[in-house]
Amino acid sequence: MNKFLIVILFSAWSISLRAQVAEKLQQLGMENIQTVTEENGNTTIAFEDNVYRGTYRGIGKAIEAAMEGMHRGNLQMVVLNHNIPQICITLTEKEITEYKEKRITIGEVYRQMGISYDTDEAMEVLKKTHRTLNSSFGKVDIVIYPEVKLENSGFDQLYTYYVNLAPAVEMPLWKGAELTAQVIFPIATNLNGQYKKIRPGVMTLSQEFYWGKTFTGRLVAGNFTNNRMGVQAEMKWRASNGRVELGAVAGGTIQSIITNNEGWYLSRKKRMNAAVKASVYEPRFNLQFDVQASRYLYGDYGLRGDCTRHFGEYAIGVYGMYVDGELNGGFHFAIPLPGKKWAKNRGVRVRQADYFAMEYSMTTWGKYADRNMGKTYKTRPDENRSNRFFQPDYIRYFLIKESN
């Protein structure tokens, strides 16, 4: 009888502890919360941040909140994106206790915590829970994206340009899946044809995968940027510390364009593109080096190298390309737009994009332009070098910097 009573009391205490940690995260607005507390008091929790702009800010808030809800034991936290694990953060009971007793600062917690892409052990523990708090399923975001393009591609005028507003409906479906439906509204342009028409933007159904051991993948089908429609598959391997990444991508698309005579025109000619990629992150100066060998949309082959510097949520970089004997280069950037936090209630949320991103190409005329060299497309309206950037060294560095 006494043993039975002890089991009941321990179960009640364990449930209470789980509830406190999960409740703290739920109060922040975190979604897809899963938690398990084991007999030794160790707690494993997973959550998704759809409230704070960027990656590190919401993670910092979640770490502080979870430690406040802890009573004893170690803590490991899995950060999700579309319910797919991205990184794992580990804190010992000693670090948590010293922080709660004000013997160390939050900055020292960030320095001492473990952070990596290796989420396998934590996800194995989380299989014990079958309850998800504050699910993102069925919640809809209407995100207003600004689009700006500036290009010197001829001798008859100095620049061609367009300025658009491109709202997109973004809705998570099942685990790893997302539906995106975007419409482009032209604001100002000196181009003709479709650029003066209301037209479809990125309209896709995507599915992300997590295979463990730091392997991830993504399959997407629908309407992409640069007037392409089709399918694309991507696979990526990441070292546990996030400093080296290897990946490959392949796609098959047709032309998708709005015309004066035929309306929405879809070509029959399929074009294949593919690339192999490598990325290295240098944590001392927060530099990201990317190199890729590609077969582009119109059958040309080339190499591209990028160097990007991360200044918190700002990302500024330069690139160079060598494509079928032709050289090209330019710069790109992603800058945060106003609004560090967005309330997310049940139902529908309307907000602006988190970032404004742009890429400028130095060579857009002559043989390079006539043969459509180096052409590719994007499958997300928010594709840039700041968004969804879960690199462990980057997150730790800027958490410490903000805490100071």
Describe, in plain words, how this protein is organized in 3D.
This protein has 404 residues and is an alpha+beta fold. Helices cover 20% and strands 47% of the residues. The protein is built from seven helices and 20 strands. It has a 15-stranded mixed β-sheet that branches. The protein has a five-stranded mixed β-sheet with strand order 1-2-3-4-5, with helices on both faces. Strand 15 and strand 16 form a beta hairpin. The longest helix has 27 residues, at 2-28. The N and C termini lie far apart (54 Å). The model is unreliable at 5-15 (pLDDT under 50).
Lay out the secondary structure.
Layout: H1 2-28, E1 31-37, E2 43-48, H2 56-69, E3 75-81, E4 84-91, H3 93-100, H4 106-112, E5 114-116, H5 120-126, E6 140-151, E7 160-172, E8 177-189, E9 199-212, E10 215-223, E11 228-238, E12 244-259, E13 263-266, E14 271-282, E15 287-295, E16 301-311, E17 314-323, E18 326-336, E19 348-352, E20 355-361, H6 366-370, H7 392-403
Helix pairs in contact: 1-2, 2-7, 4-7
Q: Key terms for this structure?
A:
single chain; 404 residues; alpha+beta; 15-stranded mixed beta sheet; 5-stranded mixed beta sheet; 7 helices; 20 strands
